[in-house]
Amino acid sequence: MSRSWHRVDDEILSVLQDVVAIESINPDLPGGKDGELRMMEYISGFFANIGIPYETHEILPARHNIIATLDGEDPNRVLLFECHMDTVSVDIMTIPPFTPDIRNGLLYGRGACDTKAGGVAMMMAMKRLKEEGFTPPCTIKYAGVVDEEHLFRGASHLASIIGAEAVVVSEPTELEIVRTHKGLARFRIIVKGTAAHSSKPHLGINAITKMARLICAIEDEIVPIYNTNTHPLVGSPTLNIGVISGGAQINFVPDQCVIEIDRRTIPGENPIETIEIFQQILSREQDSDPDLDVILEEPFLLDEAM
Fold this sequence. Notes:
Layout: H1 11-20, H2 37-49, E1 54-60, E2 63-70, E3 74-84, E4 102-103, E5 106-107, H3 112-131, E6 138-145, H4 153-161, E7 166-169, E8 183-192, E9 196-197, H5 207-226, E10 238-246, E11 252-253, E12 256-265, H6 276-288, E13 293-296, E14 301-303
Parallel strand pairs: 3-6, 3-7
Antiparallel strand pairs: 1-2, 2-6, 4-5, 8-12, 8-13, 8-14, 9-11, 10-12
């Protein structure tokens, strides 16, 4: 592996540097290409070198979960270590994303915290047990899964094939025990307009300006309602309009605008029911504006709070 960074002597940190240097952006996110392929190859080599057997499961084309097994005294009891191998995009990072430098005791790079550090800690714990010849009282399994940053398809498959007495998930929590977490509903709203030349905008219907009014209505009306509903551990529900796209070029009246909304739910909320208030606002706005053509698509991801 060619590199432009200095490898430290500490074995655990040097392995972390290796995996942070691997680009594993989820292919469904900006900049993603090969996904978790090189991570899976690195991790499989790691376990092969220390004599811990592993298996892979193809979840999506060329995207595999990897499961390594350290047998324990009781094979019917399993402690599962779980982490995900994919990362989010690097588009807005201000440092080199795959140069794992250590400064002031901290290692920097995409995925260092979420969740490559936790995954490496799990791998190294199993390596130490293997090297010391220690047989744990229960079987320990390590699972590196794909697609956590998009649709959770790796974790969903893992849950369907493995039962465990306990699971340690490597999401960063500052070593605090997490007893609950938010769920979500992710969906798109699409406004259709009519294209025209910008010299005669009155001949068209501008989908972007129509969407802008909807965004203001959503944030002005829905967010205050969320702030009145608070869970003692995870706080209030939230919404984030994380993606907006529309228009073809500057001198065209845009005939379409799309937003993607991430609506985080708290325990007690049904994710699909949280969409209703959005539809109510869209329907009301349509009633008052005959030129507004808007569709709220079915959610592409739903997940219950726990």
